[in-house]
Amino acid sequence: MEKTTQIYGIRAIIEAINANEALDKIFVQKGLKSDLFRELENLARKKGISISYVPVEKLNRLTKNNHQGVVANISPITFHNFEELVESVIQKKEAPLFLLLDQLSDVRNFGAIIRTAECTGVDGIIIQKKGAAPVTADTIKTSAGAAFKVPIAKVNHIKDAVHYLQASGVKIIAASEKTENTIYDVSFKEASAIIMGSEDVGISPSILKAADHTAKLPLLGEIESLNVSVACGVFLYEAVRQRLA
Q: What is the pTM of this model?
């Protein structure tokens, strides 16, 4: 899988973008200034594809081939259109359950969350185009193949997705320790979307402010937080518990 999800060379990557291949991230050697590179850079920005500027040593570790200073990862899955996904699910289900991931960066955490999402009947996962963990071979492996089963959509900004879901009648519940409410104080029985934040800083303040409800997990030990994939699992299974009650 690793070999089939990586391409290299400036022109090859330009052609991949023009062919609407699902590129997760482009790694670019620092200091590139050619006209062809600028064409690639402009095209990637128009398409909302994340670019990471790295030393040449990083690229040499990614591939031993003649990369011309550029390596890209192609996602092994097909991403869904966000608005079409939401509308399709809402038409079919009275109380859908969505999951939004705000800047989650670890591919294994992402894979573990996708696996739990599939097991708990999540109707769609929404991530941000830039800054989010890519779907890699490690993601697929950690998800136990669930990445091929749960619809995943990319958006320019999670906050825009929040507003769209709210306008569609979906309640937004943000996971945050900055609240007095626990997950047992919030109802997940209606159409809901749970937001989980990044591993290091959690949910961004603007998105937290836009949520309808915030909820935390009760922590009885000395450690102040759980791994995000574990915390997400607890939130999702509380939603399942309430809906089956």
A: 0.85
Q: How far apart are CA 51 and CA 15, in angstroms?
A: 16
The residues pairing with 196 across neighbouring beta strands, listed in sequence order, are 101
| DSSP assignment of 186-236 | S--SSSEEEEE-BTTTBS-HHHHHH-SEEEB----SS-----HHHHHHHHH
- The pLDDT tens digits of the residues spanning 61-108 come to 988 888 989 999 888 888 999 999 999 999 999 999 999 999 898 999
Query: Which helix (H) or strand (E) is 165 found in, with range?
Result: helix 158-167
Beta strands 213-215 and 171-175, pairing class: parallel
Residue 42, C-beta contacts closer than 8 angstroms, at least 6 positions apart: none
**Structure confidence by residue, pLDDT tens digits, 101-150:** 998 989 999 999 999 999 999 999 999 988 788 888 888 899 999 999 99
Strands 50-54 and 213-215: unpaired
